[in-house]
Design brief:
This protein is an alpha+beta fold. Helix content is 33%, strand content 18%. It has a seven-stranded mixed β-sheet with strand order 9-11-8-12-10-13-14. Strands 3-4-7-5-6 form a five-stranded mixed β-sheet. A two-stranded antiparallel ribbon has the order 1-2. The chain is globular and about 80 Å long.
Length: 502
């Protein structure tokens, strides 16, 4: 029999405890659809809670479509599947869970803000590329990139607080570095890279032990990349104690490189008639120490709240924005130590899997024959729709995707997030796309497999009949369709060779 566990001394109000525990029981099947719940008066008397508090909680559950009222203050369970389609307001919330949590998968505001800025030497390239302002060499160019581990650092903080183990922060150092490095790969940078790391922390919550692991973790991962032939070095960094700004910790990096203009992957060759080879985000590469869930560093705001239970809301209020709808804060059934369904990992290990870098693979390919690669897309922010930002008049068809990793299956099952949004937020099984000819696809696949990474042809590029960039993803009976309103950069003829410098 389902029983509530009410703690009047907890930070979370009692009515919220009733809502969360009942919602959780329905999601996990402890309360089955059609089951009659105890009367409100019985609940009030049994738990010594004011009747008005119980009424308030069950009205909220009814508004979510989880329960329905019956005679004599009785309620019956509707069930999570029916609730997902119940009220229009709830459906609207579920359809944009990521945005409702203050995060944008499309970053339309960002793209709008930079639309009038100088796009650099190669407007279709994955990263902005400038003249060589550092040395003034007309044959060279500069690339600089900034990114970070995002809210994944909050997961490390939760693990740290729950276990006392600071070594988890080493993976966060890797996440921050890879989010920069693998974007640079997409323009052909595989060496002579200089890194600067920034750690913003609340010193009251992130102690010297955690700080040490973040700093040493950066150095250790750079050394591992160099062992794989990737020439990347530390240029120092900054550690700032900014408790007023940062409740826990934020880890960011900046990478810069100088490269020959003749080596740039300009993006000009992403056009109809190519095949797309996807490099898996999960499994265990030969240069990794443990199995990777494939989660990467994007979508962790939703993944954290959709998978983890109300325990974390009650215990660690510093890890979320109090302005977010409480119905979207830590709504899942799991603790970090729970096993992840369909996986050998725990939920915590899966969420904290360090982001894989594809640098050894891409370096190997470019060293062998640069002409094999017509374009590279790092499926980070925007997930599987990232490709829409590149090329012109291209219809990207992804109809043979790699198997869906357990972490993404579980997120969708627990949260009921629409599949269309899932593909916009998460990498869904491959985080690097190589655009090449059908003849050269085998070279890409063989290179990835030589490092223990699964790879296969996951799609192709066709001419877009609308003239806009479009994407079709095979999922279920009908493909998921996406498009970009207009060309991501001012229209001009696509040169057949790299744009000459002035």
């Amino acid at each position: 029999m389902f029983r509530l566990d009410i703690d009047p001394s907890a930070k979370l109000p009692v009515y919220r405890q009733i809502i969360d525990q009942t919602h959780f029981a329905i999601n996990t099947g402890a309360l089955a659809a059609g089951e009659r719940l105890a009367s409100l008066r019985d609940l009030s008397r049994r738990h010594k809670v004011a009747i008005n508090t119980v009424v308030k909680a069950f009205k909220a559950l009814e508004q979510r479509g989880l329960v329905r009222s019956g005679p004599r203050s009785g309620y019956h369970v509707v069930g999570p599947s029916a609730a997902a389609a119940a009220p229009a307001a709830e459906a609207k919330t579920n359809a944009s869970r990521y945005q409702a949590r203050g995060v944008s998968a499309t970053k339309q505001e960002v793209h709008g803000a930079i639309a009038t800025l100088d796009p650099g030497l190669y407007p279709l390239a994955f990263c902005k590329i400038t003249e060589d302002y550092l040395t003034g060499d007309p044959d060279l160019c500069n690339v600089i990139h900034a990114d970070g581990s995002g809210t994944k650092s909050l997961l490390a903080y939760l693990h740290y607080r729950e276990t006392g183990d600071p070594s988890v922060f080493r993976g966060i150092s890797q996440d921050s570095l890879v989010m920069n490095l693998d974007d640079l790969l997409c323009v052909g940078v595989t060496g002579r890279i200089l890194v600067s790391a920034t750690i913003n922390r609340n010193a009251k919550r992130i102690g010297a032990d955690a700080l040490r692991e973040l700093i040493l973790g950066t150095d250790a991962y750079l050394a591992r990349l160099r062992e794989q032939g990737v020439a990347i070095f530390s240029g120092g960094g900054e550690t700032a104690d900014v408790g007023d700004l940062t409740p826990t910790v934020v880890v960011d990096s900046c990478c810069s490189a100088v490269m020959r203009k003749s080596d740039v992957i300009t993006g000009n060759e992403i056009r109809p008639g190519l095949v797309i080879v996807g490099l898996a985000s999960d499994g265990q590469a030969s240069y990794e120490d443990a199995e990777n869930s494939g989660i990467g560093s994007n979508g962790l705001t939703s993944a954290r709240h959709d998978l983890l239970s109300a325990h974390y809301r009650q215990t660690y209020p510093e890890t979320f924005d109090p302005g977010i709808d409480p119905a979207l804060i830590y709504t899942g059934p799991f603790r970090l130590s729970d096993p992840l369904p369909g996986s050998r990992q725990t939920v915590g290990a899966a969420l904290l899997s360090p982001t894989r870098s594809y640098a050894p693979v891409i370096r190997s390919l470019l060293s062998a024959e640069r002409r094999w690669i017509k374009g590279l897309v790092h499926c980070s922010g925007g997930g599987q729709t990232k490709c829409l930002r590149f090329g012109r008049g291209v219809h990207f068809v992804k109809d043979s995707l790699l198997p869906l990793p357990a972490i993404f299956r579980t997120i969708q099952r627990v949260s009921k997030t629409p599949w269309k949004e899932m593909y916009q937020v998460y990498n869904m099984g491959h985080r690097m796309e190589v655009y090449c000819t059908a003849r050269d696809a085998r070279h890409v696949i063989e290179a990835a497999r030589s490092f223990g990474i699964t790879a296969q042809q996951i799609g192709r590029t066709e001419r877009s009949l609308s003239g806009r960039n479009e994407l079709s993803i095979a999922h279920g009976a009908r493909p998921l369709r996406y498009s970009i309103p207009s060309s991501p950069i001012p229209s001009s003829p696509i040169p057949s060779s790299p744009i000459p410098s002035s």
